[in-house]
Amino acid sequence: MFEHLPEASRLFIETLEHVSFQFAEQIEANELSHIPDDLIDVTLDYRGAPNGSIQFATSRDFSRQLAANMLGCEIDDPSVEPAIEDSIGELCNIYAGQLMPVVYDPSKQFMLGIPIHNRFDGDRFADLSKKESTIVFLIDEEYPFLLSITESEQ
User: Fold this and answer.
1) How far apart are the C-alpha atoms of 143 and 7, rounded to whole Å?
2) Is there a contact between 145 and 32 (Cβ–Cβ < 8 Å)?
3) 134 by DSSP, 3-state: which?
4) Exposed/middle/buried for residue 111 (C-beta within 10 Å: 0-12, 13-18, 19+)
5) So what's the pLDDT on residue 105?
6) ∠ Cα 38 43 61 (to 5°)
7) What is the pLDDT of residue 154?
8) Closest to 39 in 3D by CA, of 99, 132, 128, 140
9) pLDDT at 2 > cutoff 60
């Protein structure tokens, strides 16, 4: 199990604030008032010492707002919709780059993979929210967001 969840949570909150000017608070899974209908997730694998993966899961509505904020435009701007998946992938990439030297030996090299996007249903979202390696956030008091970090043997 990933042993650095407090640091991972703090870094996610800071990264989100700096990248998109949005605010997250960590909550318990049972505090989620709803599970969004249209879900998207992104998984980024990393290799080094140890190997692992970072998974983000959230709604397309949050991803749309994230894209608008990262692009510096209004949410109804035509450039937002095509950038939804790229924005959540880029957030994951930035976060991974921030996380590695904090929770692991900063003198070691890590190789970050390419963010892989998927859509999935509410049942998988609920299951993921209950895993020990998952941190649950509420962003801007509206958007549920899951962060799961899994380490594997080399």
Assistant:
1) 21
2) no
3) strand
4) exposed
5) 85
6) 25
7) 57
8) 128
9) yes
Distance CA 85, CA 108 (A): 30
Structure token pair of residue 34: 């709803």
The beta strand positions in the chain, using DSSP E, are 24-27, 39-47, 51-59, 111-112, 116-118, 134-139, 143-152
DSSP state of 43: E
For residue 49, give the nearest of 115, 9, 102, 100 by alpha carbon.
Answer: 100
Count H helices, E strands: the chain? 4, 7
Continuous H helices in 76-129: 84-103, 122-129
Distances (CA, A) of 106 to 27, 69, 75, 101, 109: 29, 30, 38, 4, 8
Residue 32: partners with Cβ closer than 8 Å, 6 or more residues away: 129, 136, 138, 144
CA–CA distances in Å: residue 57 to residues 76, 85, 130? 23, 12, 13
Beta-carbon contacts of residue 108 (< 8 Å; ≥ 6 apart): 48, 49
Q: Is the pLDDT of residue 9 over 60?
A: yes
